[in-house]
């Protein structure tokens, strides 16, 4: 799924981990300068 998120400014900040049987990976994206948003990608 990185291929989907990378063009939108997301960078991977963790290894893949499992939660409730679903693969996740922590990602960050810059919003309006220095603020960062955290998102889980499956």
Tell me what the structure shows.
This protein is mainly beta. The chain has one domain (2-41). It contains 1 helix and 4 strands, in the order H-E-E-E-E. The protein has one helix at 2-5; strands spanning 10-12, 17-19, 22-31, 35-41. Strands 1, 2, 3 and 4 form a 4-stranded antiparallel sheet that branches. A hairpin with a 3-residue loop joins strand 3 and strand 4 (35-41). The chain is elongated, with a radius of gyration of 11 Å. The chain starts with a helix and ends with a strand. The model has no long low-confidence stretch (mean pLDDT 78).
Task: Please write out the topology.
Elements: H1 2-5, E1 10-12, E2 17-19, E3 22-31, E4 35-41
Antiparallel strand pairs: 1-3, 2-3, 3-4
